[in-house]
Amino acid sequence: MRAVRIRPTPDGGVPVVVDLPAPTPGPGQVLVRVRASSLNRGELLQAGRVKDGEPVPVGVELAGEIDTLGEGVTGWKPGDAVVAHGTGTQAELVVVSAGALVRKPKSSTWAEAGSFLNVYMTAHDALISNGRMAPGEVVLINAATGGIGLAAVQIARALGAGTVIATTTSASKVSALLDQGAHHVIDLSSQDQVSRVADITANQGVDVIVDSIGGTVFDDNLTSLAVKGRLVQVGRMGSDRAEIDLTKLWRKRLNLIGVTFQTRTEEERLDCVRAAERDLLDLWERRVIVPVVDRTFSMEDIGAAYDHMTKSGHIGKIALLMAPSAGDR
Questions:
Q1: Which residues make beta-bridge pairs with 36?
Q2: What is the residue range of 31's domain?
Q3: For residue 267, which of 80, 98, 167, 260 sits 20 to 30 Å off, Cα-Cα?
Q4: 282 in a domain, yes or no?
């Protein structure tokens, strides 16, 4: 089978396509014939750190059809169309835990499906499970045109947020965010987040922030929060360091929350899959929420796909098609 691996170089790893033996599912696992996967910002960071050693697998989400069931797996059969969360998913055949499977809606294309699970379960975990968003609350999504950001905008709107505020650093992306459900968009290239939030909320602040930027917007985020507001940190694209004004934390009784899958147990990871399935699958089937696919690439064009992500001009996800018919439903 063919698979994408990150090949080490002294300047950081580069993605390449290699031939590997087909894997075999163990107990409680399934082998999926992958139709589509997608790229995530974390994979660029991962590749940059691969400077020596053996090539490493890449990819955390997929869509495809079950090929083989491992021992003890029930409720599924070969040929079932699924999406899944796992590791090394940028490959033609991938073994995943049966507990990480979600049925693919018939209404979705393969490219959409391969772009769904990681960002939507991350956004759901941040906004709902950890941010505890309640209907009617005011939500702010930083870096909202990325995969997680757009998913959070859609989820907040679909699950009843009273006001959804999105930020971007590009004036050309404002209309896309409004189309995806944001009530207000702050263009940070020309507008100040703190003053715009104050105007939008009549100086009350926002209840929940989902932030992928980190240190460069940390103080503005604290200032933008309402009393008992929750700041959920999912990424550090801007900086992983920040100074904190403890008076803001104290006076507003704020909650600062970090989320990642890297330090979760397997049971905790699968709980996140089930929570996202519970709240989002019906919305996806009815296309109330839909993964935004900026562009698709074949597996052979993996280098061009990484280059496209590096330029940061995309809106939504960059899909990777593993089969010629992967654009079909």
A1: 63, 321
A2: 2-116+291-321
A3: 80
A4: no
13 contacts 6 by C-beta, under 8 angstroms: yes
Backbone angles phi, psi at 172, to 5 degrees: -70, -15
What are the beta bridge partners of residue 102? Answer: 83
d(Cα 15, Cα 306) in Å, to the nearest integer?
8
Mean pLDDT taken over the chain: 94
Q: Are residues 128 and 102 in the same domain?
A: no
Q: What is the rounded (10 degree) CA torsion for 49, 148, 94, 28?
A: 110
> Both 24 and 94 in a single domain?
yes
Beta strands in 22-181 (DSSP E): 29-39, 56-57, 61-69, 81-85, 93-97, 101-103, 138-141, 163-168
CATH number at residue 147: 3.90.180.10
Residue 300: how many other CB atoms lie within 10 Å: 10
Q: Note the pLDDT of residue 326.
A: 56
How does strand 163-168 pair with strand 184-187? parallel
Check residue 91 and report its DSSP letter: B
Domain match, 49 and 78 both: yes
DSSP 212-244: SSBGGGHHHHHHHEEEEEEEEE---SSBS----
Q: What percent of the chain shows pLDDT beyond 70? A: 98
- Is 252:225 a contact under the CB 8 Å cutoff? yes
CB 184, CB 166: distance < 8 Å: yes
**195: three-class secondary structure by DSSP:** helix
**Which helix (H) or strand (E) is 15 found in, with range?**
strand 14-19
Pairing of strands 61-69, 81-85: antiparallel
Query: Which pLDDT score, from 0 to 100, does residue 74 have?
Result: 96
Total length of the chain = 329
- How many domains is the chain built from? 2
* Global pTM value: 0.93
Tokens of 162: 């009273």
Asked if 125 and 225 sit in the same domain, the reply is yes
The answer to whether the CB of 41 falls within 8 A of the CB of 84 is no
